[in-house]
Amino acid sequence: MTPDAASRLKTIPNARPNLHTVVEHVLHLPELCPASHNPAPGSTLTLRYVAAGQLLELFSLDTYIDAFIGHPVVRDMELFVQTVAQDAANAAGAEVTACADVRLNRVRQGQRVTVVAVPGH
User: Fold this and answer.
1) The domain containing residue 97 runs over which residues?
2) CA 68, 97, 24, 36 torsion: positive or negative?
3) pLDDT digit string (tens) for 34-59?
4) How far apart, in Å, are the Cα atoms of 33 and each of 12, 62, 86?
5) For the chain, how many structural domains are there in total?
6) What's the pTM?
7) DSSP the chain
8) Could you report the per-residue pLDDT of 92-114, keeping only the tens digit for each?
9) For the domain that residue 67 is a member of, what is the CATH number?
10) CA dihedral defined by 63, 26, 1, 113, rounded to 10 degrees?
11) Distances in Å between the alpha carbon of 99 and those of 11, 18, 63, 72, 114?
12) Out of the domains of life, which is the source (predicted)?
């Protein structure tokens, strides 16, 4: 869905692929929407996967997330989490669970969105 953003997501080789390794990245989300100013400060996105041959590279995750600031297509948090989960699964070659814990402006609620994605979909 976002080939421009997905191309920013890099991996590094897993030095010990024979060891069962669970990886969690906790990303502090920037303001993505210039109109609503959402998500609000304190919002996070956690990516969790069992490492296979590749690991998601830390610095590229920040660059990748920044590609969604003011994005013309990915406008809601549900689609954002779905897109990130799928792109991460494709890059890592492993099932990825993405869970966003979102604080929102203009409403008296937060939102938690969880998506499980497998490579290639």
Assistant:
1) 3-117
2) positive
3) 888 999 999 999 999 999 999 999 99
4) 30, 17, 21
5) 1
6) 0.92
7) --HHHHTT--EEE-S-TTS--EEEEEEEPPP--TTT-PSPTT-EEEEEEE--SEEE-HHHHHHHHHTTTT-SS--SHHHHHHHHHHHHHHHHTS-EEEEEEEE-SSSS-EEEEEEEE-TT-
8) 999 999 999 999 998 999 999 99
9) 3.30.1130.10
10) -150
11) 20, 27, 19, 22, 4
12) Bacteria
Block residue for tokens 């692929």: 17
Q: Check: CB of residue 78 under 8 Å from CB of residue 100.
A: no
Residue 42 main-chain phi, psi, to 5 deg = 95, -5
